[in-house]
Specification:
The two termini are about 20 Å apart. Helix content is about 0%, strand content about 40%. It is mostly beta strands and about 110 residues long.
Length: about 110
């Protein structure tokens, strides 16, 4: 997993990309589970849109994205962070490797 971009309130969503190694595209959709850590005061439904906790890498692909939309709460705050950690896979042949977590800024 890697952080691709940070989110801004009322602006662009942040983005994580989840990658499989080259040549290991699944033959069926692959569902990965993840946990969300708010490493500062950021909280789901107050600072960013709640996330489902799963991401699907489509059959034949090696990447999927997780978007994080910052909510404009009209409160002046310091920078907040959201960390995602991959926790599981729907396929025993696709295990979680390193790095298993990444974070973006809100």
């Amino acid at each position: 997993i890697s952080a691709v971009g940070n989110a801004t309130e009322g602006g662009f969503p942040g983005k994580f990309d989840v990658y499989l190694p080259s040549g290991s595209a699944p033959v069926q959709d692959l569902t990965l589970t993840y946990s969300i850590s708010n490493t500062s005061s950021a909280s789901a439904t107050l600072d960013f849109t709640a996330l489902p906790g799963t991401v699907v890498i489509p059959a034949g692909s090696t990447v999927a994205s997780i978007s994080v939309t910052a909510l404009d709460d009209n409160v002046l705050e310091s920078t907040e962070t959201v960390q995602i950690t991959l926790t599981g896979s729907s396929s025993p042949s696709h295990t979680i490797g390193a790095p298993a977590s990444a974070q973006i800024l809100l």
